Amino acid sequence: MRTRHRFPDVRVVIYELESPDAIEALRDGRCHLAVSFAYNLVPRLDSPGFASQQLMEEPVLLALPEPWRAERDPIDLKRLAQEDWIVGSRQTDDRLLAERACAVAGFAPRITHTVDDYDLLLRMVSAGLGVGFVPELGLRFPSAEAVTVRTPGGAPLSRRVHALTRGALTASPLVRALLSELAAELRTVRKVQWRLQI
């Protein structure tokens, strides 16, 4: 990481937390920078007292079993009304995204499985256990090659990734360097991801 070379005396410690927990850790001083996400159909309330920088916005796509491979973009969600759905289990955002997107299409999804990572979701989809929404970066696992990835019909679905910090830290050279490094890394990962999908 370039930041380590620029600031050799600084040690960066990473904690994996869900978005609400990361914001709480930032609020009570357990961390100085939090990375959080929100879906466009499941927005988060603004966090007063924090400075926010959007790092990226990525599309949310449909992961479908092999029989869907012949189908072209976009897939009308109504066609998935009888399918079992797989959503994330760690927080309510993934469930709410599926419920709201499907409600716009005129049905309530039959959520059968909840799992805690995209690799497992993709493996379950490839085994024919259901369908699910996956943000673009969630397709970086080799298991993505065994599923059909399509754009959902209707209004575009997206996930925005933000970095938050306390307002007083926005002028810190270290915080600015970390934000720059995070944004650059996400751009690189997205370019590689698109190359893999083509």
Please provide a written account of the structure.
This protein has 198 residues and is α+β, with helices and mostly antiparallel strands. The chain is 30% helix and 24% strand. The chain has helices at residues 2-6, 19-27, 93-104, 118-126, 173-197; strands at residues 34-39, 50-64, 84-88, 110-115, 132-135, 148-150, 158-166. Strands 1, 2, 5, 6 and 7 form a five-stranded antiparallel β-sheet that branches. It has a two-stranded parallel ribbon with strand order 3-4. The protein is elongated and about 55 Å long. The model is unreliable at 192-198 (pLDDT under 50).
Give a quick precis of the structure:
This protein has 198 residues and is of the alpha+beta class. It has 5 helices and 7 strands.
Pick out its properties.
alpha+beta, 198 residues, elongated, single chain, disordered C terminus
Write the layout of secondary structure elements.
Blueprint: H1 2-6, H2 19-27, E1 34-39, E2 50-64, E3 84-88, H3 93-104, E4 110-115, H4 118-126, E5 132-135, E6 148-150, E7 158-166, H5 173-197
Parallel strand pairs: 3-4
Antiparallel strand pairs: 1-7, 2-5, 2-6, 2-7
How many DSSP helices?
A: 5
The dominant shape is elongated
Biggest pleated-sheet summary: 5 strands, antiparallel
Tell me how many strands there are.
7
Q: What is the residue-averaged pLDDT?
A: 88
Instruction: Spell the H/E element sequence.
Output: HHEEEHEHEEEH
